[in-house]
Every structure is written in structure tokens, then in C-alpha cells.
Amino acid sequence: MTKLGRQIGIGPTDNTSDQRTPRQRLRLIPEAARASFVPFVPARYATRAHEWDLTRISPDRPRATGSPIEVTGTLKTESGTPVRNALIEIWNANHHGRYRHIEDQSGLQLDENFFGMGRVLTDDDGNYRFWTISPGAYLARPDIGRWRPKHIHLSISGGSSRLITQMYFPGEASNESDPMAILMGDAFQRNIGKPYETPDIDVDLGYQFDIVVGGRNATYFE
Ligand code: FE
Fold first, then answer.
1. How far apart are the first and last CA of the chain?
2. What are the start-end ranges of the H helices in the chain?
């Protein structure tokens, strides 16, 4: 196989870098020719009724350990138009800071009542709502002692686009030293959920996280 450019292997067992290495020079696609975020969702995004509530694996199961929180917001375009029918998926670590994922080798406690992922479609006004458990911070790099502040991962899909971002929590000690936050620069403030009181006794606190696709005030996407 012809090899162009430098090969970057992910790890000692990785043998796929050939396929992931571009064969041709990279070219920048002009802004005007790039795909826009189209608020069209194919039928395969059929969500189930309780997938918005991560605090229970199913409605008949006990509540997961930790502080239940609400996360709500509106998905908007650059001009402020709400985007309906976009698929929003979230995932976060459990109360102890552990993901239910094969790559989470932290050894921290799993919670049999916390699956850690949920998804919804935005409604006609572009709104979404989740309940989840307030995530624990976790030691992302034990070798250098680097913690990740508590955060929720979000994926926004519409048409052929998929955007990934993270919602942070205000006032967390390790926010400022977080590598992602440093990368975001000024945009970091827009990725912090705004706390609000909720009369709903089933959750301790709400966080508003509006997501803006495109423009100067865009949410930071990875
Ligand atoms: Fe994470």
C-alpha cells in the first residue's frame, strides 16, 4: 500500500492507521460550500418515551444514586430560529465519576440503576429536556493527576451533521485548568449550564443549556 505523509498509530495494537491516513493533499472547503446544519431527522431516530430520564433505567426501576438534576435548553440556529426534530443525545459519568463504558478502567463504583445515556428529539420550539444524575468529577489522567471537572457530553444530530459538545457546571474548582476549557477560550462561558430552581420535587436543581449552531455566539463543538 502506498503511504503518504506521516502515519500516526493510536496504540500498539492499532493497525488501522493506513486506512485513516489521507491519500491526497488536504483541501479547505470554502465556507459557502460547507454543509449547513439541516433540521431534518431521518426516521431511524425513533426515540423511546422514557429515554429523556437517565435517573432510572426504566420507569419501574429504582432511582440512581446521587443528586437528580434537570437539563433543559433550546437548540437554535445562528439567527435564533429554533431547530425542531433534531436528535439530542447525552451521556455522563455516574455520581461516583464512573462511566458505564469498557474504556473506563478507573475501578470506581458502577451504579446498577444508572445507565448514563439518554436521547430526545427537540420539540416544535427547539426545546429539549433531560433528567440525569449530577455527574462526579473524574481523574482522567492518573499519570499526571489531571481531573476533569463534572460535565455532561451532548451530541446534536440533524440531517447529515453531528455535533458534539459538553456542558459544564458553574463554580467547579477544576473548570479553569480543564484542557477542554482552555481550548475553548472565551467560548467556555457559553458552555456552562445556568442553574435555576425548579418546583419539581423529583429533581434538586435545573440547568439551562441553550445550544447555538453557527455564528459568533455558537456553542463550542469538538
Ligand atoms: Fe467525560
1. 32
2. 17-20, 179-184
- Domain assignment present for residue 18? The answer is no
Residue 67 domain boundaries: 44-213
Catalytic residues: 99, 138, 148, 151, 153
Domain count, the chain: 1
| Cα 110-54-122 angle, rounded to 5 deg | 145
**Tens of pLDDT, residues 106-129:** 899 999 999 999 999 999 999 999
Query: What is the whole-number distance in angstroms between the Cα of residue 152 and the centre of ligand 1?
Result: 7
CA distance 137 to 24: 41
Q: What is the pLDDT of residues 9-65, one digit of tens each?
A: 555 566 676 777 778 887 777 666 665 665 555 555 678 889 999 999 999 999 999
Centre of ligand 1 from the C-alpha of residue 92, in Å: 6
- Ligand 1 center to residue 26 CA distance, Å? 30
What is the model's pTM?
0.80
Given a contact cutoff of 8 angstroms between Cβ atoms, the answer to whether 108 and 114 are in contact is no
CATH number for the domain harbouring residue 145: 2.60.130.10
Question: 49 alpha carbon to ligand 1 midpoint, in Å?
Answer: 25
